[in-house]
Amino acid sequence: MKALSLIVAFAKNRVIGINNTLPWHLPEDLKRFRALTMGHHIIMGRKTYESLGRLLPERTTVIVTRNKSYKVEDVLIAYTLESALMLCSGDAEPFLIGGAELYKDGLKLANKLYITEVQGAYEGDVFFPEIHLGEWQLNDKQDHVSMSGLEYSDLIYLKKT
User: Taking the model in full, what pTM does it have?
Assistant: First the structure.
């Protein structure tokens, strides 16, 4: 099976977004995201791409969409998550970065989860799907307090074999 890592930040109530933005400001998590994904393929849904509003530098962007006429310059387009993974050949660790619908499919294919769990519940309109923890082994957990006082944990899970 091809490697696939999911990377996500969510609140205790699994909120990942509201109105196409993050419900919190956590520069430390953005720095971690950048460090982990730099030089890799990042797979995302069309709405996630459009919410970013730009290409992320020094990464290869793969957009998954059902729209066969969707085009973006300097981007790879796929129509399924499986076909997106095929476009990532040669990358030892492609990352799925959202959104919720792709995360649901990605949980079935992924072998690694990078989770930033933000303490507290947030209002939101997009949620990360339920993780069946029996299928995953917690490999690393680091608790942090951001410069702004926001508490969060960085978690890494590996799929049990």
Answer: 0.95
Q: What is the CATH number of the domain that holds 22?
A: 3.40.430.10
Q: Which of these ranges, 6-10, 51-55, 134-138, 151-155, has the smallest mean pLDDT?
A: 51-55
pLDDT of residue 1: 53
Residue 2: predicted pLDDT: 76
Number of domains present in the structure of the chain: 1
Domain containing 85: what range? 5-159
Cα 77 to Cα 61, 89, 91, 117, 142: the distances in Å are 9, 14, 17, 30, 35
- In whole angstroms, how far apart are CA 131 and each of 17, 64, 76, 106? 17, 22, 28, 11
